[in-house]
Amino acid sequence: MRIPNEIDFWRGFALLTIFVNHVPGLYFERFTFRNVSLSDSAELFVFLAGCALRKLVEGPASGRSKGALILRLESRALRVYVAQTVITEIAIALLAAATIVLDAPFLLDWHNASAVFNDPVRAHVGLVLLTHQLGYFNILPLYVVLMACAPLIALTQRSARPLLLPASLAIYIGALAFGVNFPTWPVEGTWFFNPLAWQLIFILGFVVAGEDGLGAFARRHHRILRGLALPIVVIGAGAAIMDFSPAPIEFPAPRLFFMFDKTFLSPARLIHSMALMALFAGAFATIRSWLPRSSAFLSLLGRNSLNVFCAGSILSLTGQIFRFVYGGHVATDAFIVILGFFLMGLVAWASEWREKPLAD
Amino acid sequence: MGIGMARKATGGLAERTALALAFAIFASAFSSAEEAPAPAMAPPLSASCYVPASDIAAPASLPNVAAALQERRTVRILAIGSSSTSGVGAPSNGKSYSSQLEQILEHALKGVDIEIINRGVTGEVAETTAERVKSEVVINRPDLVLWQLGTNDALARIDPGDFEATVRSTIGWLKENRIDVVLVGQQYTTRFARDANYSAIRDSLQRIAAEENILYVRRYDAMRFIAKAHANLELMSRDNFHLNDLGYQCMAEHVAHAVIVSLFVKGVRPTKD
User: Fold this and answer.
1) Residue B96: which residues within 8 A CB-CB, separation 6 or more?
2) Closest-approach residue (CA) in chain A for B123
3) A179 with B158: Cβ contact below 8 A
4) Over the stretch A165-176, which tens digit does the pLDDT of each residue have?
5) Contact A188/B119, CB-based, under 8 Å?
6) Which of A106, A256, A263 sits opposite B241 (nearest CB)?
């Protein structure tokens, strides 16, 4: 078990925020930072995943041969893929069970699930290919794609380091310039999180987490970066509070560059998110000394992020069904949040407890 | 207005006869309208889908679609929203509401090419649609966004005030980008006729449409009219929540009717003070 660290702490924070944000209408959603921000926990989560990959590549996997590295990283991607398919199937079963118990067939529609019941032949192929995703169950497919590319990232890092960020940036610019995204099937549409755009923040996390290059530069000039970040964060907060969103018609093509768009991770969102991280980077030590228990709890969640994320996804869907039955009041919402946080903590604790005898 | 309009719980024989008569008259108007070359006539509703115009929508201007028609270019429509848009329960893509709508509009606006891009996702709340719609708009460059919404927000117990804020903000953004919006409201099912959230969301939509001066197709009122007018017609599939073939057909007819009326009838909506 790692001692609480910055990446785990913020990962835990992102996990709790994602859980709250994934119960639409939840009273406590108003206290999550996306209300005063252009970006939300999704950016934080993907950025930190990039950081974690760097730590893995330079830590436990550093001495491995190319083949071993590829195998190691692809097995991680496979683990995420299995997690995604399993939680999606559990979500489908939850909706089906709720439909039976509550005699509420419309629940079969929720979050894009209806194709599974109305067009099962094609939908099942889509589920396995990740081209059919349920609403709120669409972050892990992005993570699967990113992790599947992790060996490529790690090997580029080993042998062609200066190429990594420019290549990533080129893919990002290409995706936004031409509006390229992964298609969904059988339901006609595109991925909610476009991997071609979102890979950039993952790579940025990977690069910044390193001891050299951009990471070293950022740490050396942290004060200046923080000074630059502050006005960006403040302006972003203002825009979010005023509900400002630029009208792309006023800009030249390609217009995806001039929006606050989530699917394509528009530059404004990306820059704002990076500014937030620059501003809060290093704050962990202070937070930990002030709130040791909370810091330990969030780090516990973050250390077991995949399991906790899966639990959080199922719990947020359960919370939605609960709200449908019992209505959305502060009391029901408080119950959902408290029980949800507790169970996510329990999953994290159990994940570590399970590993313990092996470690001893 | 609107909510209390033209609501008749029919049941008596006399009323039924009157309705049958009205259909007969309407049907004859239908055949003559079909031959009329000018597009200035609202597309006729089929007998099964007949609903008084006042129960479908109050016309509102669609300046960007009108401009596209004037320039004789393809009218691009982005259909976004939840299950009825994605076509759950309809047997094939050819029968979905958006493809039927495309056919009706092309037929009514002779010589005009209509392209409908379908981006419906079942069971989606307005907040998520609001996030998706922006990049879809920039990539597909529609003249009109047909936004079907309300049902899932009501069921997810979204606060009507929050719902209203989300929808208004998105409408404002679409307007700024010179895109017309048509809101397509919740469906009528007996199960939710008494649900407080369901009617609160309906009130929100009514208010948004009136204050933003945009076209709002009141599916609930239209479907309720059909349900009360002819008990033998079933618009819903067996689950009593999804539309069946006839339900999709009526939805397409009602939306097309509202759009055409709005395009060719001027100054109908009283200005708000």
Assistant:
1) B86, B87, B90, B118, B248
2) A110
3) no
4) 999 999 999 999
5) yes
6) A106
Residue of A nearest to B140 (CA): A179
Nearest to B132 among A113, A187, A263 (CB): A263
Question: What tens digit of pLDDT does each residue of B143-152 get?
Answer: 999 999 999 9
CA distance A179 to chain B (A): 6
Q: How far is A132 from chain B (nearest CA, A)?
A: 11
Instruction: Please report which helix (H) or strand (E) contains residue B181, including its range.
Output: strand B180-184
A248 backbone φψ class: left, alpha, beta (φ>0; ψ -120 to 50): alpha
The token pair at B217 is: 């197709």
**Average pLDDT score over chain A:** 95
Give the pLDDT score at B273: 37
- Asked if B260 and B69 touch (Cβ cutoff 8 Å), the reply is no
The answer to whether the CB atoms of B122 and A248 lie below 8 A apart is no
Are A266 and A256 within 8 A, CB to CB?
A: yes
Residue to substitute from B83, B135, B204, interface A, most A β-carbons within 10 A: B135
Average pLDDT over residues A330-352: 97
Instruction: Cite the DSSP H helix spans in B54-195.
Output: 63-70, 83-86, 97-108, 126-140, 151-155, 160-176
CB contact under 8 A, A247 and B121: no
Query: Is A112–B155 a contact, with Cβ atoms under 8 angstroms apart?
Result: no
The helix (run of H) or strand (run of E) holding residue B205 is helix B196-212
The secondary structure of A97-121 as a DSSP string is: HHHHHHT-GGGGGGGGTHHHHHSHH
CA-based nearest residue to B42, from B25, B21, B24, B56: B56
CA distance B250 to B86: 15
CB-based contacts of A349-354 (< 8 A; 24+ apart in sequence): A349/A300, A351/A304, A351/A307, A351/A308, A352/A1, A352/A300, A352/A303, A352/A304
Domain boundaries, chain B: 13-264
Is A105 close to B241, i.e. CB distance below 8 A? yes
In CATH, which superfamily holds the domain spanning B13-264?
Answer: SGNH hydrolase (3.40.50.1110)
Q: Cβ contacts (< 8 Å) between A323 and chain B: which residues?
A: 156-157
Alpha carbon distance B203, A155 (integer Å): 58
Map residue A205 onto helix, strand or coil.
helix
pLDDT for residue B47? 87
Contact check, Cβ <8 Å, B138/A179: yes
Model ipTM? 0.91
Which residues of A are less than 8 Å from B241 in CB distance? Answer: 105-106, 109
